[in-house]
Backbone:
C-alpha cells in the first residue's frame, strides 16, 4: 500500500496506466549497419506520422479544432524533408546511432529558432522538441501515452500532471489518478474534484512501484493506493464504491432547497468553474451562482491568446445560462504553477511571489484590456461581477478600476451596450486582509482565496508536501485574518465570499459562516453536502463558536473545539 494526499473523494478499481517521464540516452555510438539504422529512423517517422494523424482526428472530436492544431503543426515537423535529410546524412557520414544524429540535428534547429527574435518561431522550438521525443520513443519502442487518446478504463499514474494535461482527462475512461508530486490545492487537484475523479497527490514512488496493467484500488477518502488484495478486499471496495455513489444520490433531496441555517439565516452556496464546459456541474448540483470562474484555463486551452470575441462568446454563454444568478468572473491569474506557453515570461526564483495574476495584467495592458472589454460587453447578458486576483495594495485595484472605466467610455462612444456590474477583489495576500477596512471603501465585494492566503500567511508553498504540515486552514492566524475581512465588509456594507478550497470543506463551512462570511464558493460536487451541513446548525450558535475558537492558540485546539461543537 502507498499513502498519498486524498484530493478528490471516491473509490476507483482499475488497471494502471503510467504516464512515463522520459529520460533518453542520446549519447554518441558508432554503428556498423548504417542501412539498418536509417531504416529504423524512417520507420519511426512513419509511425510518428500515423500517431499524429489519429491524434489530430481524436483531439478535434473531443476538444475542438484549436487543440487539434497542435498535432497538425507536429505532423508538419515530422514530415519535414530538411530534418529527415540532415539526419540521414549524419548517420551515413559519421556512422553514428540515430538517437545521437537526430538529437544533434534537432538541437541545431532549436538553437537557431530560439536565437531568433520572433515569438512564433521561438515557440516552434518547443514543438520541435516534442516531435523529436516522439520519434525517438518510437525508434526505441517506448510506449507513448497520449492523454487525449485513452479509450479504455484506466487508473492514471504520473510523476506530475500539469494543469493542461489534467484538463484533457476524460472521466469516462480515467477512473482515478495519482501523482507523486502536488498538494491539496494544486490546480490539478482542483480539476480532479471538478471532474469528480477520485485522486491522490504526493504518492511517493508510485512510478517505480507499479507496472502498467497491474490492478490497483484508489481510496480517495483515506488517501491510499491498495495493490496487494484478494477477491474479498476487492468486493469490499466495490461495495464502498456503490455506497459512495448511493450517498451522493441521497443528496438529491437537497436540490431546490434554500441554502440556510436552522434559524433561517441565508447564505449563498456558489460553484467554482474552470471552463464554460463545467456549467453542467453547476446545474447538476443546483448552485446559487458561480462564485469563481477561473478564466486562465480559457487561455491554457488555446495555442495563442484567445481573441476578444472568443472570450466574449464564452463569458456571454455562461452569463446567459446562469441569468439571473450571479457569476463572478476572475481576470487572468497566470504565473505561479500556471504558465502560458505562448506568453514569454522571465524565469523567476519564486514564481508564487513573482509576476502573477493582477501584477501581470497591469504589466501586459493590452492583454488585460482585451479581457476586460470582452467581460464588459458580456455584462449585457447576465449578472456579472468582475474580480481581480492577488490584490496586494489599494493602488493596484484603483489602477485596474481606472482601466475598466476607460473601457466603459470607449464602449459608450461606440454605443455598445453593457450592464452595471460589481467590481471586487480576491483577498489572498495578508496585506489585503490587514487593509480590508480601507479596501472595503472602494470595492463592491471581497472573495477570500484561502488557498493562497494560507500559503502566504504561513509562508508554506501550497505545492510543497514537505511543508504541508504548515498548511493549516484552521490555524487561528488564518481565522483572525478572515474575521478582519468580514468585519470590514460588514462595516462598509459589502459582501464576503470564500472561494478557496476551504469554502467547500464541510468542516470549515459552518465556522466561516460563524465568522461572518456570506457566500461560500466551492467545487460543485460539494454544494449539496454543504447545504445539508448548514441546515443542521443555528447561525447564532455558529457565531458563538467562531468567537470561541478565535481565542485559541493552535489549529489543533481549534479542531478539537470544532469536533465538540460542530460534530465534525
Ligand atoms: C485561492 O487562492 O484560494 C484561489 C481561489 O485561487 P487559486 O486557487 O486559483 O489560486
Ligand atoms: Mg489564488
Residues:
Amino acid at each position: 500500500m502507498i499513502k498519498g494526499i486524498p484530493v478528490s473523494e471516491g473509490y476507483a478499481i482499475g488497471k494502471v496506466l503510467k504516464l512515463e517521464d522520459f529520460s533518453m540516452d542520446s549519447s554518441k555510438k558508432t554503428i556498423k549497419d548504417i542501412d539498418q539504422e536509417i531504416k529504423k529512423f524512417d520507420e519511426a517517422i512513419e509511425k510518428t506520422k500515423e500517431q499524429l494523424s489519429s491524434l489530430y482526428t481524436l483531439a478535434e472530436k473531443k476538444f475542438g479544432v484549436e487543440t487539434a492544431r497542435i498535432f497538425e503543426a507536429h505532423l508538419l515537423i515530422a514530415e519535414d524533408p530538411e530534418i529527415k535529410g540532415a539526419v540521414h546524412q549524419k548517420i551515413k557520414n559519421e556512422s553514428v546511432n540515430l538517437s545521437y544524429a537526430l538529437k544533434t540535428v534537432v538541437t541545431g534547429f532549436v538553437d537557431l529558432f530560439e536565437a531568433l527574435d520572433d515569438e512564433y518561431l521561438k515557440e516552434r522550438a518547443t514543438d520541435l522538441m516534442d516531435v523529436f521525443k516522439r520519434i525517438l520513443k518510437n525508434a526505441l519502442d517506448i510506449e507513448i501515452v497520449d492523454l487525449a487518446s485513452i479509450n479504455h478504463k484506466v487508473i492514471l499514474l504520473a510523476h506530475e500532471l500539469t494543469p493542461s494535461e489534467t484538463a484533457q482527462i476524460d472521466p469516462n475512461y480515467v477512473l482515478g489518478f495519482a501523482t507523486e508530486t502536488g498538494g491539496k490545492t494544486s490546480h490539478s487537484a482542483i480539476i480532479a474534484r471538478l471532474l469528480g475523479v477520485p485522486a491522490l497527490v504526493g504518492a511517493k514512488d508510485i512510478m517505480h512501484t507499479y507496472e502498467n496493467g497491474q490492478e490497483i484500488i484508489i481510496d480517495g477518502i483515506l488517501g491510499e493506493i491498495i495493490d496487494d488484495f484478494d477477491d474479498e478486499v476487492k468486493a469490499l471496495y466495490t461495495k464502498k464504491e456503490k455506497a459512495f455513489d448511493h450517498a451522493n444520490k441521497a443528496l438529491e433531496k437537497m436540490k431546490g432547497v434554500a441554502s440556510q441555517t436552522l434559524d433561517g439565516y441565508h447564505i449563498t452556496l456558489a460553484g467554482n468553474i474552470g471552463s464554460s464546459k463545467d456549467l453542467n456541474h453547476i446545474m447538476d448540483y443546483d448552485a446559487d451562482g458561480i462564485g469563481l470562474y477561473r478564466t486562465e484555463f480559457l487561455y491554457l486551452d488555446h495555442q495563442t491568446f484567445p481573441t476578444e470575441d472568443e472570450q466574449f462568446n464564452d463569458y456571454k454563454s455562461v452569463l446567459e445560462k446562469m441569468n439571473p444568478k450571479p457569476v463572478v468572473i476572475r481576470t487572468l491569474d497566470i504565473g505561479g504553477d500556471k504558465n502560458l506557453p505562448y506568453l514569454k515570461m522571465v524565469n523567476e526564483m519564486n514564481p508564487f511571489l513573482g509576476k502573477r495574476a493582477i501584477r501581470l495584467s497591469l504589466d501586459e495592458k493590452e492583454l488585460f484590456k482585451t479581457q476586460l472589454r470582452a467581460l464588459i460587453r458580456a455584462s449585457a447578458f447576465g449578472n456579472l461581477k468582475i474580480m481581480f486576483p492577488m490584490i496586494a495594495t489599494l493602488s493596484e485595484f484603483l489602477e485596474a478600476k481606472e482601466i475598466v472605466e476607460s473601457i466603459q467610455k470607449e464602449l459608450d462612444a461606440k454605443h455598445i451596450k453593457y450592464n452595471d456590474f460589481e467590481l471586487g477583489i480576491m483577498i489572498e495576500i495578508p496585506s489585503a486582509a490587514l487593509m480590508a477596512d480601507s479596501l472595503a471603501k472602494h470595492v463592491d465585494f471581497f472573495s477570500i482565496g484561502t488557498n493562497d492566503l494560507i500559503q502566504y500567511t504561513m509562508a508554506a508553498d501550497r505545492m510543497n508536501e514537505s511543508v504541508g504540515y504548515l498548511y493549516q486552514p484552521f490555524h487561528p492566524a488564518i481565522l483572525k485574518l478572515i474575521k478582519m475581512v468580514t468585519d470590514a465588509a460588514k462595516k462598509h456594507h459589502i459582501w464576503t465570499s470564500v472561494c478557496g478550497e476551504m469554502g467547500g470543506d464541510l468542516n470549515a463551512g459552518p465556522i466561516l459562516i460563524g465568522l461572518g462570511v456570506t457566500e461560500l464558493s466551492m467545487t460543485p460536487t460539494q454544494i449539496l453536502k454543504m447545504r445539508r451541513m448548514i441546515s443542521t446548525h443555528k447561525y447564532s450558535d455558529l457565531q458563538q463558536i467562531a468567537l470561541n475558537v478565535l481565542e485559541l492558540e493552535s489549529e489543533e485546539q481549534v479542531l478539537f473545539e470544532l469536533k465538540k461543537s460542530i460534530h465534525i
In short: The pocket of phosphoenolpyruvate (ligand 1) is lined by residues 185, 292, 294, 333, 428, 449-452, 499-500 (CB under 6 Å). The chain has a mean pLDDT of 90.
